[in-house]
Each structure stands twice: as C-alpha cells, then as structure tokens.
Amino acid sequence: MDCIPAIFSPKIGFLACALIFLPDVFAGASPASTPVKVSALKNAAGTLGLSASNAGEPASVSQPAPLRVSLWNGRPDAAPVTLQGGYTSLRETAAGDWLGAGSLRVADGVTLEFTDRWDAAQNTLRLRREICVRGNASGGFTSVATFRVADARPWPEMEWFVPGMIYGNFDHMRPNSFGAGNYYKPGDYTVWIREDRMPAPLLAARLPSGASMAVLNSAPDGATTAAEGQGFSREPMADARFRFGAILAEERPDGTSLGYAFPGSEGTLSYGRKTGAGPETAQQWRHRFHPLTDGFVQRYEVSFRLGAAADTNDLVARSWRWAWDTLKPQVNPQPIETLRRCMVDVLEENFIEVEDRAGVQFLALAAPGGKPHPNPKTILGFTGYALGSAEMMLVEANREPASKRGRQLRADAEKAIASFLRRPIAPPVDEGFLLKTGGPALSTWPAAKKVTENQPIYLRSFCDDMKSLMRAYEREARAGRPRPEWLAWVRQFGDWLLTQEQPGGGFPRSWRALSGKLLDASATGTFNAVPFYTQLYRITGYKPYLDAAVRAGEFAWGTGHARARFTGGTIDNPDVIDKEAATLSLEGYLALHDATRDKKWLDRARAAADAAETWMYIWNIPMPADADGEKLHWKRGQSTVGIQLIATGHSLNDAYMCWDVESYARLARETGDPHYMEVARILLHNTKAMVGRPGDLRGTRGPGWQQEHWCFTLPRGLGRHREWLPWVTVSHLRGINDLMDYDPELYKQLAAQ
Questions:
Q1: What is the residue range of 426's domain?
Q2: For residues 584 and 659, what is the distance between their CA atoms, to the nearest angstrom?
Q3: Do 679 and 665 touch, CB atoms closer than 8 A?
Q4: CA distances from 677 to 582, 661, 669, 747 (A)
Q5: Strand runs labelled E in 369-494
Q6: What start-end ranges are recorded for coiled-coil regions in this protein (predicted)?
Q7: 420 within 8 A of 413, measured Cβ to Cβ
Q8: How far apart are alpha carbons 716 and 729 in whole angstroms?
C-alpha cells in the first residue's frame, strides 16, 4: 500500500518531508465564525508544535511535540517505549486549516510518516491524522495525540467528566475504577480508557477558573476481533483490524494533558471480567498496537473543544451536547405495539401461584432451554418489580377487559397485589417472599440461603413498587374501581418512613431484614423518597407528604446533585455514582415541579436528565466480524445506540432507561428543548433491539423475552449470564404506558416506525 505524502506544493508536487521556515510564534487567521485561534510553535531543535486558544473563553492548550507513539518490540514481556517529536513542517493552508508533517524513526529501517490535518470550527479543533509505515519490524505501535492544558491544576483540584465513569472527582468512586483516588500519585497519574467502554468516546475537564477542555473521537469505528474483544487478555496484541481507540488524561510534573490513543491501549488501570463479587481490576496495562508493516496506513480523527463551564453539571451538559451533535445518534425503529403485547405475555408466563401466595417470579432464563427455578421468589421494586408487574398486567387487562386473556391478567395481578398486602410494611421486614413457603426473601440474597438480620432491605425497593401500586390505584379509580386497601397499605409505609427521616431531610439507604431496624444511614439514596412522597401527596392531599418530598429534594440537590454526583441508585453495587440515581432524580424533580410549579425543580430536573442521558450509548459499536453469531448475545447488525452503562466501576450495559421515555418527553415540552424529545424517541425504540419478536427471537426463548444485560467492550457482545428479571419487562412497558397516559397522540407519533 502506498503512503499518502505529507505536503503538497502546487509548483513542485508532493514532498514527503518539506521544511518551511517560520518565526518562533505566529498566529493563523481564523474564520469569522470561530473563536479558536491556532498558533505554530518553534522548538529549540527547529521542529514545530502548535497551540490553540479560544478567543471567547479562558481555555488554551499547547503541544510542542505533536508526533508521539508507544512502540512495542514484539516480545511478550517487553514494555513499550515512548517516542515523541515535533513537525518538520507546519503551515496554514486556508483560514483555520493547518497541515503538519513529520516523521519518527522507530527502528532500524522503519519510519512512521505523519500527516496531520487540523481545522478549526467554532470552539473546536479537529485533527485528521494519517501515519504511513515505511519498513518492517516485529511488534507494533500506538499513536497518541494530546494537548497540554494551560494553567491546569493537580487532578483533585479539577472537575472531570467521562460518560458513565467519572463525574467530578474521587468522591463516590469505587476503588480501582477509572479515575479513582486510591491509585492517584501527584504528578504521576495516567487514565487511558478504551472507547468501547464509553457511551460517547469523550473526556472533559474543568479548571477552577472555569476554563474547560474536552476531547472526543468525532468519527468512531470501534471494530475489533473475536480473539481480542471477547477475552480479557492483558498480553500485548498487534493487529491491523483494531479500529478502537482510547480517550486519555495524564498528569505529569510539568502539566496535565488530554488526548486520544489509537489503537486503544488501556492503563495504568485495566478492567477484567465482572463477577458476583465485583469487577476484577488490575494496575496493569492492556496494550494494543497496529503492526509495523511496510505500507500500512493508520487513519483516525479526534476533536478538541475549548470552552468554559460554570460548574460540573454545566461541564457535563455542554460536553455531552457537543458529542451528541457531532455523533448524531439515530433511531433504530422497533414494532412497539407488537412488542408491548408480547412482553405482557412474558409477565403472565412467569406468574406463579401457590396456595394463597402469588406473584411474578424473580428470575428466569431468557435463552432457550431454561428449567423452572427450584425455589422461586417474588420481590418488590428494583430488579424484582412484583407490584410493577401486576401494574402492567392490569394496564393490559384494561385494554381488553372482556377477553379471556384480559380476565386472566386481571385475576393474576390482583392475587399478586393481595399477597403483598398481607406482608408487614410498618416497618417492613423483607422485600418479598418465597412463593413455595411464604418465607421472607430479599432482592440481593439467594433464595436458598436463610434470611437473617444481617441482610439489608432497601429504601429503593419499597419506593419503586409503592409508586407502582399507586399508579395502579389511580387507574383503577379512574375506571370506577376504588381500591382503598391498596392506598392504605402504601400510607402505612409512608407514615412509617416519615419516622425515619434524618435532620436535613435525608433518608437511610437500608434497614435490617426481619426487624426493620436501621442498617445503613447513608442518605445518598434520598432521591427515592421524592417521587414517592410527591405521588402520595397528589393522591391524598396530605401536606406532610409534600413537605417531606420538598425536604428530600433539597437534601439530594444540596448534598450531591448540584455537583453532578448522582449516587446510590443501584442497590447491588456499592454506594457509588450510577445512572439510576440520575433517572430517579429526574422523575422526582419533575414531580416536584408539577406539584409546586417552582421553576427551580424544573432546572434541577434538567440537570438530572442531562446527567442521566450521558450513560446512553450514542454511537454504534460493531460486534466482531469473526465471532460466532450464534453465541453472540447482542446480535451482529443491531445498533448499540440507546443502550446504557449501569454504574461506575464496571462496563456492563442494559436497557433500564426505557422507562424514562415519558420523563424526557415531558421535559421537552416543559423546557421547549427538542433535544429531550430526541432522547425520548431513542429510548422508546432502540432499547428494544434485543427483545424477541414473532419470527425473530434474537437468541431468546420466545417473543417478548430479553436478557438483562450485555457488554460492548470486553467481552464484546456477551453478558455475564442470560437471565431475565421482571424489571426488564416492567421498564419497557412502563415507558410505553406512562407515555400513553401523558399524551396518547404523542405516543403514536413517537412509536411510529
């Protein structure tokens, strides 16, 4: 393969290593539409670098040595070495456009020839890089493009954002996760993250001055091989088929840099597999390279944004919108009405009745060949959604009340609800029960193990399904079927929970099973109480419920959300930043805005929505072309756009935000921002890409089935297991039904293929 030459001269043609003499520093003209100003820098050795600044913002960056590679000699035990240098030539070819060229000698008879094309637009500087290999050698290379941030402070004094991974700084980070503080060393901190782990290949930083800089792979590909992408090897690998990069930040004694590496090595920390005991991580690099093969050309694109942000929420929102507008995520249309009916049938298929106990079971195999669980349980909220399942069955029954299917759905849903109304709730002593025996059961405790007071029962579990029962209560009331016993049970819990409120408005994370005594006083999950109490106030008109919701909302905002720390949503993870905290906060702040019409709650709902959507993939990650298609859980050819990371500290994905459709649609109307309606439509459709449908089961056991999660990085296209849990189906159906309740015509518009 021939290399593309570095410099073109209209008089003498192409020159591989043209030399242009420049003054020490000169500023290039910028188009009138862009505040970014690019300048060339001359090094003492005569080579050239460049700097960039934003005329309208305090951000500026520089790089005296733009040519940089990590070079591996091919020996498995050999660490790569870094080579770096400046351009031999750099010139402005048009207003805002620059062309840089140079080379690095990496081995005897082997040279890497760089051609860098820079262009400035608005507050963004884009690099399109081509590197041609001249000569052959064993091993491989990774090229790196970085800028040093002017006036950067040490990492703990800045605010950072990586979608689904870093929101602010070290607080509420799982140890040994990307950006965590337990391995931070001043002046020696390296964070390289494979971009296939990221909802958008994006990293942003905010200085104490308010200046901000972000880096984005603006044309991601993400391809890899089955050998690399479906294992966890930390052995160095070199392959021309690697099309994924890494977003990076490095703190050194002489400053902090942000940038991109291609292909995507990962370090100093790297993740392994996610197990029941948590993610396996190591302070060890996972190096990936392209081959040193004569004629091989490496091409990629990366963009840098120079701006300002008022605070961390502003950094998150501005950086993410830039990534969204650049990557332009597309809707993946799905047959919503067909899937809706099939998914309700899955709930009915998992309904179990034993004596006077009934409910939708907690766990089933989503793939063909599943066997009945030996000791099934039914669980409130979070992953179990026993009452949410009953709610969705009742909604469907109301669509066809006279049919055999409708009558059966109603009868079974009512039995499930009646079973829970017999459980103690003030205080609660369990999260559910074993269907065969009626014994206590918990969401995070195996059914085969005895429940003791050492196990937790969570605020999240109860608030989730109390809301489910209240929605069912309201629908029944509108249909002329009052259910006072349902509301009375909810109020028992609500009145007891008021006794657990902490000074300042917070609520505990968990209590002890069997006794209901306090276990974990952490109040990071207080946001769970906000939509619960606001909904209970709307139904009852009892002012102390609204007062509690307002206090809880103020507490949640003041103790974390104002700084983009949405923490403690997923009870099967540690008390860390996660997406579910943001989505539940969005629900709560919208509810408070509806109840009070105070604009501050709408502003806070926007902040929560902006944070929540950053967990959602807005680029497509292809499954390995050489992987066994039958063994892939995420099927080849289906877009990954719309699926989300779950929590910081690991890289599993799910479709949880499918229930947030109505929240984003409502927010779009309340704010007049059409972007949120785009998010709503993607969440309605794209999240259902792996739901089985008639004639195309997509690897599941039948229409309406979907496994709980997948992974788009290592191991790509696979999940830890192939299980179904009720939350999967309830979340899909809630997204549909809530939108129908909000605006039936809008539902028809968004659901249309």
A1: 336-751
A2: 10
A3: no
A4: 18, 9, 8, 11
A5: 377-379, 432-434, 440-441, 456-458
A6: none
A7: no
A8: 23
What are 44's two structure tokens?
Answer: 């003492």
Which tokens belong to 18? 């043209």
Q: Are residues 508 and 459 in contact, defined by beta-carbon separation less than 8 angstroms?
A: yes
CA angle 91, 93, 98 (to 5 degrees): 55
| 172 shares a domain with 135 | yes
Q: Smallest Cα–Cα separation from 645: which of 704, 581, 698? A: 581
Amino acid at 729: T
**Do both 190 and 214 map to the same domain?**
yes
Residue 504, both tokens: 């300042």
- Regarding beta strands 140-149 and 255-262, do their DSSP bridges make them parallel or antiparallel, or are they unpaired? antiparallel
The sign of the CA dihedral 318, 320, 323, 328 is negative
Q: Of 498, 583, 582, 584, whose CA–CA distance to 536 is shortest?
A: 498
Across 84-107, b (16+ Cβ under 10 Å) vs e yields ebbbbbbbbeeebbbbbbbbbebb
Tell me the CA distances in angstroms from 508 to 52, 55, 523, 584, one per residue in order. 49, 48, 5, 16
The rounded average pLDDT for each run of 10 residues, N- to C-terminus, in the chain (753 residues) is 32 29 34 74 98 91 98 97 98 96 97 98 96 99 99 98 98 95 98 99 98 99 98 97 99 98 98 81 97 99 98 99 99 99 99 99 96 97 99 99 99 99 99 99 97 98 99 98 99 99 98 98 98 99 99 99 97 89 99 99 99 99 98 98 96 98 99 99 99 98 99 98 98 99 98 94
Output the DSSP codes for 389-412. Answer: HHHHHHHHHHHSTTSHHHHHHHHH
Identify which of 144, 84, 140, 87 has the alpha carbon closest to the alpha carbon of residue 302.
144
d(CA 462, CA 533): 12
- 411 & 444 share domain: yes
- One domain, residues 273 and 369: no
CA–CA separation, 140 and 74 (whole Å): 7
Strand-pair category, 7-9 with 13-15: antiparallel
Q: Taking the CA of residue 315 as centre, how many other CA atoms within 13 Å lie in the half-sphere pointing to its CB? A: 30
Same domain flag for 391 and 441: yes
**Cα–Cα–Cα angle for 681, 580, 685, nearest 5°?**
20
**How many domains would you assign to the chain?**
2
Angle, CA of 336, 342 and 344, to the nearest 5°: 100
Q: How far out from the chain centre does Cα 384 lie?
A: 22
Instruction: Look at residues 126, 421, 523 and name the one whose alpha carbon lies nearest to residue 300.
Output: 126
**Helix axis angle, 529-540 relative to 579-596, nearest 10°?**
30
